[in-house]
Each structure stands twice: as C-alpha cells, then as structure tokens.
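Sanity check

After download, print the first record. It should look like this:
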Amino acid sequence: MNTRLQVEHPVSEAITGLDFVALQLSVACGEPLPFAQDDLAIDGWAFEARVYAEDVPKGFLPATGRLDHLAFPDGVAFDRGPVRIDSGVGPGDEISPWYDPMIAKIIVHGPSRASALNMLGAALADCHVAGAVTNLDFLGSLARHDGFARGDVDTGLIARDLATLTGQPEPPAAALALAALAGLGLLKENGAADPWDRLAGWRHWSEAKQYIALTTDAGRFEQRVVVLGQGRFEVEGAGGAVALQVRPLGGTAIQVAQNGALYRADVIVTASAVSVFLQGRSHSFTLPDMLADTDADAGGGDEIVAPMPGLVKSVTATVGAQVTAGDALLVLEAMKMEHTLTAPRDGVVAEILAAEGDQVTDGTLLLALEPEDG
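Expected structure tokens:
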C-alpha cells in the first residue's frame, strides 16, 4: 500500500481533529491506532489553497524568482486552527527550477461551507508575495466564483470560466497612484526633525510635478504626480486625476484617504518593481530602467526564448526548415513538466542556439526565425 500522506491531508486533519503525521509515526513504531472507524466524525468544512510561483496568464507555467517580500495572514503553522499556514520558505528565499514551486498551503476550517470560504478569501487577501509571480489572484477569483461558492463544481469549471478567473483588468487608478508615489520615493515616513528630510514638495514659484512610467502586462501607464503638501498628492494618468492623502503605518502598510473614504494598502518597492496590494488583489508594476536602450529592436516574433528556466529535452526544428505558425520547435522540461514551444508565425528556421540537454534560464534565446522570402 502507498503510505505517504497526500498534500491535501491538512483538510482531513481539520475536519476530523486528528494529527495524521503523529498517527503515522505512531503506527511506524508498532503502536495500534487509538480509535476505530466508527469513532470518527466530520466537523465542519475545510478548504486548502496552494500558493504557487506560477505564471497564470502563460498557462500556469511554473515560475522562479526571489521572494523579496513574503507575508502570511495570522494563523497557526502546521497545526489545527481556523487558519493554518504550512510553508517552508521565507522572505529572501529563492524559488528555483529544481524543486516544486509551491510557496505555501493555506488551510481554513469553519462550521459551514460559506463561512470557511469567506475565511479563505480573507486569508488569501492577506497573503502578500513580491518578487515572484504567483497564482494568488487566480485563487482569490476562484474563491469568489459564484458556482464554486454554491458547490456547483466539476473538473471542467476552471476551463469553462478561464477568462473570468484569469482575466487581468487594467489596474485601478488608486493602485497606479500608489505605485507612482512609491516609485518616486514619496511614500517614505516623514516624521524626521530635520526639515531637509521632510518631503513636503514645497516650491517657491510653482507646484512640484514629477513624472513616471509604470509597465504591466496590461500596458504602459504614464503618471504625473503633483505634490500638494505633506502626504497630499494629485496623481494623473490617462483615466483622469486622483487626489489622495497617505500616511505610512509602519512596514509595508499605508493608510489612504480618498474621496472621503479611508482604506489600507500595502506597498513593496524593490530596485526594479513596485507591488501594490489593494482590496484583495495584487498589482505589480515594473519601474523604468533609465539605462535601457528604448530604441533597441525587441525582435518581434523572430526570436523564440525560454519562458522559464528548464532543461532542453529535445529539438525538433532544423536550420533552413520552413515552419508554419503552431509547429513544434523544441521541448523544454521544467518542474517535472514538459512544455512544447511552437512557432509564433510562418517562417524559416534561421538559427538554433540550444541543444538537447542544455540547461537554460528564463529569457534565454533558443531559436531564431526569418521570413520565408529571406
């Protein structure tokens, strides 16, 4: 028999009140089980959400990266409780291509399906990861899905509603505004006694204006920031202007006052990106690279690059071969899964830069195409 514990065993532990690991060790030591089957009863409902480093818009491809910031909701670790977090990583750790990219399991237990699902949604909203792409937004969308909430679930649910569950709407104006302020260094605590350390934005002749361009998968967003006073700003983008007042609460937390409403956001800034956690969703923005060559040719659809770190399992393309859009070119193995890379358009294989057995990193150029007419 297969005696290993399944990854979902915390769900069974939650509704039975048993410690499966302790029982397994006890049996391995020759002890009998301290109960009979008829002694067991189910108490309440439990859900488990597995937080993974994976790129959902790219078909849930496993991802790598450094956990620049990692914060979990309040709960217990590896023990029974309303909210349980099982994780083996921490801030600063690397998600590598050599192991499963799971970051954590979040398990909730409540007296009813509805209450447990509400707890799951709240716990996911309080789980913040920056530095590596994750499936957190997808998990949150699934927890809010009407059919899932009703228990109307089958194996085709995600495929049927994939666009809704994985859609990436444009970031809201408030998230863009906070990212712009953070990218310009305007969210720092300004309680210093030295007036030169207080970023009030005062100018003798005119208001202070600063500009920044933020990039996401949804596009490029140019923002103009006007400093109105201590902690008060107006941020304008293509969708209009947002006036807000911010107050750092310590750590990553920011209190925001906007249009009479008061809410909290969490903002994490790294050397090249800003992550904003707002109202249960995460928004990641790439900051402008002042040294980047903006006129460089991006290669269009002529270059096939590795979408993730992995091992080149096989190369089916040959130099000089004519290919049509969708033809298989090579197979990349990552996280114990094989991923076939296909031609993005019709063309001729001009160059092959990877060989079977090569270990490649994310973004490595693997193959180049050229138009059929040369």
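If your output differs, re-run the checksum step. Summary of this record's structure: Residues 99 and 311 are 13 Å apart (CA to CA).
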